[in-house]
Automatic annotation (TrEMBL):
Its main location: membrane. This is Tetraspanin. Functions as a cell surface receptor for TIMP1 and plays a role in the activation of cellular signaling cascades. Plays a role in the activation of ITGB1 and integrin signaling, leading to the activation of AKT, FAK/PTK2 and MAP kinases. Promotes cell survival, reorganization of the actin cytoskeleton, cell adhesion, spreading and migration, via its role in the activation of AKT and FAK/PTK2. Plays a role in VEGFA signaling via its role in regulating the internalization of KDR/VEGFR2. Interacts with TIMP1 and ITGB1 and recruits TIMP1 to ITGB1. Interacts with CD9. Identified in a complex with CD9 and ITGB3. Interacts with PMEL. Interacts with KDR/VEGFR2; identified in a complex with ITGB1 and KDR/VEGFR2 and is required to recruit KDR to ITGB1 complexes. Interacts with SYT7. One of its GO terms (biological process) is cell differentiation. Disulfide bonds join C88-C120. Keywords: Cell membrane, Disulfide bond, Endosome, Glycoprotein, Lipoprotein, Lysosome, Membrane, Palmitate, Protein transport, Secreted, Transmembrane, Transmembrane helix, Transport. It comes from Myotis myotis (Greater mouse-eared bat). GO terms for cellular component: cell surface; extracellular region; late endosome membrane; lysosomal membrane; melanosome; multivesicular body; plasma membrane.
Length: 181
């Protein structure tokens, strides 16, 4: 039995799961898996609590990438792909492109066009382009798919909890002298 009075409550908790007295080194796998589950839960809670900050940071980063668009440094390909996939234009709407120095002036990237063709973003008509912003469209897509992400996370957590339970059973059977055939 562990003699340190400060370790008695944690030792009881450890003994319950791993069969150790809290001062030994048996059952580290159980403890390690438990810590991983706790970190995952803390990450999920932080993601939920900070969701508005994540959205504002995404908006800021998207606008920064728009400023890098004319530099032809792969940013243009990334933004074009996002605008095509989500049928959107700019961060908040298509007018965001007015602040980006594109040549010729007063144009949007061709990826904003409903029917994407070379040069369709030059001298565009509003009815021929996507007017909604990408930040809101991507946010809506994430919100609609959050159930799939949550289900996958719960499935992974279930497997991890099973690992903890089986590790506890294994430690208990080893300590009780059970022989495996």
């Amino acid at each position: 039995m562990c003699q340190d009075p400060a370790l008695r409550p944690p030792a009881g908790l450890l003994r319950l799961c791993s069969g150790t007295d809290g001062c030994g080194h048996r059952g580290p796998f159980v403890i390690f898996l438990s810590l991983i589950v706790l970190v995952e839960v803390a990450t999920a809670i932080a993601g939920y609590v900070l969701r508005d900050k994540v959205r504002s940071e995404f908006n800021k980063d998207f606008r920064q990438q728009m400023k890098n668009y004319p530099k032809q440094n792969q940013t243009d390909l990334f933004l074009d792909e996002m605008q095509k996939k989500f049928k959107c234009c700019g961060a908040a709407n298509y007018t965001d492109w007015e602040t980006v120095p594109l040549e010729p002036k007063d144009r949007v990237p061709d990826s904003c066009c409903i029917n994407v063709t070379a040069g369709c973003g030059v001298n565009f008509k509003v009815k021929d382009i996507h007017t909604e912003g990408c930040v809101e469209k991507i946010g809506a897509w994430l919100r609609s798919n959050v159930l799939v992400v949550a289900a996958a996370a719960l499935g992974i957590a279930f497997v991890e909890v099973l690992g903890i339970v089986f590790a506890c059973c294994l430690v208990k059977s080893i300590q009780s002298g059970y022989e495996v055939m």
